[in-house]
Amino acid sequence: AVDSDKRCLVFSLETDRRRFTHRLIANASSVPLSSLKDPLISQADKDAIARVRDKILKSKIRFADVFDTSIEQICAVSRKEKLKHPDTKFIFIDYMQLVSSEGKGTRNEEIAHISRKLKVLAKELNVVLVEVLQLNRMLENRPDKRPHLSDLRDSGQTEQDLDLCFMLYREEYYQPDTNFKNHVEIIVAKNKEGPLGTITMKVNLPCNQFYELGQFEI
Asked: Which residues 6+ apart lie within 8 Å of 64 measured at CB?
């Protein structure tokens, strides 16, 4: 993301800009997130962090400053950004269930309204809109904890509106003694223009990094 030449707008509703930036730094520098504030950090890691910070400052990543997380405000800020920077290609929302909308009945009806508005916004601005979504807790009651589309929290409308949906599963989270440590399954649960399936990758959690199998060993 840091090296991409595509302009993107980020709505980080769950964490503040500083914490979100720290995650970007850990990912791009390969320095563990927990080490970023370590006073005993090595000079090599300091240099790597400095290089990445410089890239972030020069990148086309823009953090939206919003205190009102309503769908109306998000749409207004997005339109303003697209007007100012027509080359904006991506909008990220972390995460969608934190978006609000007044006077839309039940929470399910509210989420359905938000989902439809975001769908229209993506088409209107001709951008790829990426939403982080929460799951409900129903999967905790199943022997197989792999998530399904029906596990999306609060509304089936979101499931209907998505063009592409990736769901993550780490067996190690539920079974610490598994032979598949540091593995993550990326489940393509919905794909309007291609096949469904599962991609297994290696994950370096301290640095928020994903690798192809065999590419990186932890």
From this structure: 9, 10, 11, 12, 74, 77, 78, 81
Q: How far apart are alpha carbons 19 and 12 in whole angstroms?
A: 10
pTM as predicted: 0.84
Whole-angstrom distance, CA of residue 148 vs CA of residue 130: 18
Token pair 């370096």 in the structure block, residue: 204
The DSSP letter of residue 100 is B
Q: Which residues of 78-102 are buried (b: 16+ CB within 10 A; e: fewer)?
A: beebbeeeeebbbbbbbbbbebbbe
Cα–Cα–Cα angle for 56, 60, 61, rounded to 5 degrees = 65
Alpha-carbon gap, residue 153 to 55, rounded angstroms: 36
CA 140 vs CA 75, 89, 96, 128, 156: distances in Å = 34, 36, 21, 31, 19
Task: Encode the chain (218 residues) as per-residue pLDDT tens digits.
Answer: 555 677 899 998 877 888 888 888 898 889 998 888 888 899 999 999 999 988 888 888 888 877 778 899 999 999 999 999 999 999 999 888 888 887 667 878 888 888 899 999 999 999 999 999 888 888 888 888 899 888 887 667 788 888 999 999 999 999 999 988 899 999 999 999 889 999 999 999 898 888 887 544 44
Type of residue found at 90: F
From its phi and psi, is residue 164 left (phi > 0), alpha (psi between -120 and 50) or beta?
beta
Q: Which of 145, 117, 30, 125 is nearest to 80 (CA)?
A: 125
| Alpha helices (runs of H) in 31-178, residue ranges in sequence order | 43-58, 71-84, 107-125, 156-161, 171-174
